[in-house]
Design goal:
D-Maltodextrin-Binding Protein, domain 2; five-stranded mixed sheet; signal; Bact_solute-bd_prot1; SBP
């Protein structure tokens, strides 16, 4: 089967810039948002999204809902959109009716009461429809504050040609200790087993994978707990990664998503990635010479147990409004794009990795062996492997319970400032860097009026 995939326009580097001032557009009130409620009897809604597959669902939705007109606008990718969204809401003008928000950033808007609980529209009945990881990410403080668009369960993408040369069988590696031994063998060939120059999103995913729970926010949003230094599961990952850094077993100099990074993936000098399930087409476009060489395995874990975490993924959330007609129209579109079978298929055919159990268990999806580029050419990039079988298994294994901070965008933006030097400066340990990051986060929380515990 062919997997038609267009490159996802989702930036997945972990370092996020601190929210800064940006002029808000429009002149309507925040409760009226930016769409109009009447255009020849139609309700108009404005959707902000950088995802390239979402606009493809508009035609099908409008055919089924001729009384609703949908405009999808790219207001910027992740941090740029969040800056515009926050400023528009706070200025009381220019906010969209529906907005794409990554899972890690969703709590910020829920705590500030800037997005709506979709339970009133029936979203609370969808618990069995979505994967555990994505469903838990949109369930916040007893409400459903978004519908999952896609998901990013972690998986191990590896260059089998390099691994074979090193005598490493990825399918036999279940623990981090085994990963460490494999890293030494890979390094002996001249390649690195993977790269990490200081990615906050990756740090979150790996500590989640280890079972850490360093962050907690009270239900009323007034108290936060930040316990990176005292969480023994955080220490499990930090100690493991420090050993790899100390022994030059991972590439810490090549920045993710840079040209040099793609070059390393292409020539095999970076031999594997621990990353989200959205990666296949990015490999096809960024490392074309790897075609036929790469495979996918399950994530090694600290103790070899079967568990997983998420890395990336987005949702669609309703911006708070008093205009019931627009809220209902915007919810209908969100449900079509994220819950309706045709809407989901349109997005998956365009390259989105699904968040729903029906797609993840369908024969059509699971039997895919080829990626299809934008010119219609099929590529068995993973050597004929039914790659979605591995990725669906990864999605089913995601644990729930990990919490993000109510200012996670800021937290990721300053991670490199506090911990980044530990990846390249031997005089600074990752433990020291994480301690500095924790202090920064606690100071920031207090400045924002939170009680820090």
């Amino acid at each position: 089967m062919k997997f038609t995939a267009m490159k996802k326009a989702v930036a997945l580097t972990g370092a996020m810039a601190m929210l800064v001032g940006m002029a808000a557009c429009g002149n309507t009130s925040s409760n009226d948002n930016a769409g109009s409620s009447n255009d020849g009897g139609k309700t108009e809604i404005l959707v902000w999204s950088w995802d390239s597959t979402l606009p493809r669902t508009v035609e099908g939705f409008e055919a089924e809902n001729p009384d609703i007109k949908v405009t999808v606008t790219n207001a910027g990718t992740n941090k740029d959109e969040y800056t515009a969204l926050t400023n528009a809401i706070e200025a009381g003008s220019g906010a969209p009716d529906l907005v794409q928000i990554e899972y890690y950033a969703l709590p910020e808007y829920q705590i500030r009461e800037q997005i709506m609980d979709m339970s009133e529209f029936g979203a609370d009945k969808f618990s069995d429809f979505y994967t555990p990881g994505t469903w838990s990410s949109v369930n916040l403080n007893g409400g459903v504050y978004a519908l999952p668009m896609d998901s990013g369960p972690m998986a191990w993408f590896y260059n089998k040609e390099v691994f074979d040369k090193a005598g490493v069988n990825a399918d036999e590696i279940k623990t981090w200790d085994q990963f460490y031994e494999a890293a030494k063998k890979i390094r002996a060939t001249g390649s690195y087993i993977t790269s990490d120059s200081g990615d906050a999103g990756f740090f979150d995913s790996m500590t989640w994978l280890a079972g850490a729970q360093p962050f907690e926010t009270s239900k009323d949003g007034t108290e936060v707990s930040i316990n990176l230094a005292s969480d023994d599961k955080v220490a499990t990952f930090v100690d493991f990664w420090q050993k790899l850094i100390d022994e030059d077993l991972i590439d810490t100099k090549t920045v993710g998503w840079s040209d040099d990074w793609n070059k390393g993936l292409n020539d095999g000098s970076i031999a594997s990635l621990l990353t989200g399930a959205w990666m296949p087409y990015n490999l096809l476009s960024g490392a074309p010479d790897g075609e036929g060489k790469w495979r996918i395995a399950q994530m090694p874990t600290a103790d070899g147990s079967t568990t997983n975490s998420e890395n990336g993924g987005s949702s669609l959330a309703l911006v708070k409004t008093d205009d019931k007609a627009k809220a209902e129209a915007a919810y209908k579109f969100a449900e079509y794009a994220c819950h309706n079978a045709e809407g989901i298929k349109t997005r998956v055919d365009g390259g989105a990795f699904p968040a729903d159990n029906d797609t993840l268990s369908s024969d059509e999806f699971l039997n895919m062996t080829a990626l299809t580029d934008s010119d219609g050419n099929a590529h068995e990039y993973f050597g004929g492997q039914k790659f979605n079988e591995a990725l669906a298994e990864a999605a089913a294994n995601v644990s729930t319970g990990y919490k993000f901070l109510p200012f996670e965008v800021y937290a990721r933006g300053v991670y490199a400032d506090d911990a980044g030097a530990a990846y390249t400066d031997k005089s600074i340990t990752l433990k020291d860097g994480i301690a500095a990051w924790e202090k920064n986060l606690k100071d920031f929380a207090e400045q924002q009026g939170y009680t820090v515990k």
